[in-house]
Amino acid sequence: MTWAFGILLFLATVLAMEGFAYVMHRWVMHGPGWFLHASHHRPRTGRWELNDLYAVIFAVPSIVLLLGGVQLGWWWGCTWIGAGIAAYGAIYFGFHDVIVHRRVATRYLPRSAYMKRIIQAHRLHHVVETKRGTVSFGFLWAPPPETLKAELNRRGNAGVRAPAGDIAR
Hints:
The structure is a single chain. By secondary structure, the chain is mostly helical. The protein has a domain at 3-111. The chain has helices at 3-29, 34-37, 53-70, 77-100, 113-126, 145-154. The longest helix has 27 residues, at 3-29.
């Protein structure tokens, strides 16, 4: 094993996790796992929501791979893959929970076009309160907001939350 190959495996895992997260978000969280994820599409009433259990669920493979690679004599690549999964989880937490949902106080203001785009895309994901009909399931890559808005309009804005103070709906 070389360090270069280990780092390459780590980086490939981080990148692959975006695809995994997209699939899990679109077809599991907005599918049979909606019973947990629905809490994330409603206003939070405390520090925690049922959706937070997904962080625990998705941490298990990372912990097992790190333990196996470091302590149990498994293939050395398990350590790098486990670390890549953990790194994606940390990136996700920083972007999703800290920057977008502001669950941790921060003064961060997005300045780059990339950060503005993914934050806007995630907010457009959250305007839909229902299991179906939402857009943008990735976390670190997202289509332009104009594309997402057009898709919501094409779907007739089904499930879109009423604007604050709108009692007409």
